[in-house]
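Please decode residue identities from the backbone states below.
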């Protein structure tokens, strides 16, 4: 460009400044290079100082604007560090001085630093299998089945009595005297055993009880004509079917426990009502008022008083209870042998199966029982009962 403008010396001057002439000596050349390097170094130093001063100015401007916070000197930051280094130091100090997390406790009424479904490592360590399982013995289970066979045999005896009374092979007066005699003997035996064994069981023979029994008998005798004609318009097949259903209800809801000796409670009351209703339906098929009265009186003694006496015998003596079971089974079988032999044989088979086969079945199935308990079970309060 300078040569084009007619100023050729400017171009030659620039070339002289950039490249030493060829006629210069080697010493002069080295001196020129040293001078050029020093100039370059000074230029770089000035550039670095300029950049540092620019950054410093920018930092001071940010500090004034609040974007760059300077942390004052403190035990956690003695040098008054700023920016990320001071913040990280403060965070580490807070983490070191923060309180430790409290251990988890199985309490729902306190606030904890854990979610509601949290479980600790000992959750499955408290697992219990078959903790409350009771192992049965064969002889014990056989003795416990006598209450079932006794009630089945008593129902069979009651049906056999009705069939004989319906066929006129049993007189109403004989049935009435047998019912009254057996009831009085049972009450006397109850009180004698209480006095002999000194059992804390309430005595039965009382004047009020005798008055109530006489009043009930007179009321039942007065209602006998009404009960005899209660189901005249109903077919006999319907009566027999309803009777079977009611006796099945009586067998299912009967109170098989040994604790209740004075009162009739639920579900024993359902069983008693079903038996009384079945007795009323059967009594409506008899042909005389005396037969209705004798049969209903026998039914009340058989289904209301006799089960309580059986439970009393089982509590007093297991041998007496077993003897009662054998006697009832034999009487029911003997009575049905003259009525219908297949029913008698079915009764024998069912009695043997319930008494001897069912206990073996229960003990065999018990090996597969798997009852699991653990901390997930609901809490059960312990209630202490005190006798006043």
């Amino acid at each position: 460009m300078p040569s084009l403008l007619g100023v050729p010396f400017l171009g030659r001057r620039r070339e002289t400044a950039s490249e030493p002439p060829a006629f210069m000596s080697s010493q002069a050349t080295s001196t020129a290079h040293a001078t050029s390097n020093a100039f370059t170094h000074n230029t770089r130093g000035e550039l670095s100082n300029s950049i540092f001063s620019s950054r410093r100015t920018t930092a001071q401007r940010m500090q004034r604007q609040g974007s760059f916070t300077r942390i004052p000197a403190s035990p956690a930051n003695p040098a008054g560090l700023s920016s990320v280094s001071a913040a990280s130091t403060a965070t580490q100090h807070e983490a070191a001085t923060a309180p430790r997390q409290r251990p988890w406790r199985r309490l729902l009424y306190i606030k904890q630093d854990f979610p509601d479904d949290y479980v600790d490592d000992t959750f499955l360590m408290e697992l219990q299998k078959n903790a409350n399982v009771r192992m049965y013995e064969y002889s014990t289970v056989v003795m416990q089945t006598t209450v079932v066979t006794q009630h089945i045999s008593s129902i069979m005896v009651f049906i056999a009595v009705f069939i004989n009374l319906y066929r006129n092979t049993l007189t109403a007066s004989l049935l009435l005297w047998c019912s009254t005699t057996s009831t009085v003997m049972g009450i006397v035996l109850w009180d004698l055993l209480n006095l002999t064994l000194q059992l804390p069981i309430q005595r039965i023979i009382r004047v009020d009880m005798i008055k109530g029994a006489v009043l009930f008998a007179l009321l039942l005798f007065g209602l006998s004509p009404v009960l005899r004609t209660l189901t005249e318009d109903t077919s006999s097949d319907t009566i027999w079917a309803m009777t079977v259903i009611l006796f099945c209800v009586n067998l299912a809801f009967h109170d098989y426990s040994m604790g209740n000796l004075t009162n009739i409670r639920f579900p024993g009351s359902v069983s008693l009502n079903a038996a009384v209703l079945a007795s009323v339906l059967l009594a409506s098929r008899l042909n005389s008022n005396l037969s209705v009265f004798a049969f209903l009186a026998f039914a009340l003694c058989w289904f209301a008083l006799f089960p309580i006496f059986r439970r009393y015998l089982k509590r007093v003596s297991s041998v007496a209870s077993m003897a009662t079971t054998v006697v009832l089974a034999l009487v029911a079988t003997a009575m049905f042998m003259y009525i219908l032999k297949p029913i008698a044989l079915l009764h024998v088979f069912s009695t043997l199966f319930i008494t001897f086969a069912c206990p073996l079945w229960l003990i065999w199935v018990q090996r597969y029982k798997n009852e699991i308990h653990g901390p997930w079970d609901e809490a059960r309060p312990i209630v202490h009962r005190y006798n006043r």
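Observation: The first helix runs from residue 8 to 18.
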